Amino acid sequence: MNQAECWSRLSVTQSGGSRYEGGRTIASPVRLLLHLTYGTDKQAGDLLAWLRNKECVREPARSARRSA
User: Fold this and answer.
1) 3-state SS of 20-44?
2) pLDDT for residue 50 is more than 60
3) pTM for the structure as a whole
């Protein structure tokens, strides 16, 4: 697999991947995709479980905000 194929799986251009490989900080969403795509099955499973259990802060529905 070449560099362009590797990064395209993550929707990152070859030039963007090259910048990451050169030391640019990898954005959190890209890091997550890297681990899910190229990590072991156990690593990917653990990460997915962590993501699914992570609490999300959600805004109240519009109808609830109007009646408040």
Assistant:
1) HHCCCCCCHHHHHHHHHHHCCHHHH
2) yes
3) 0.67
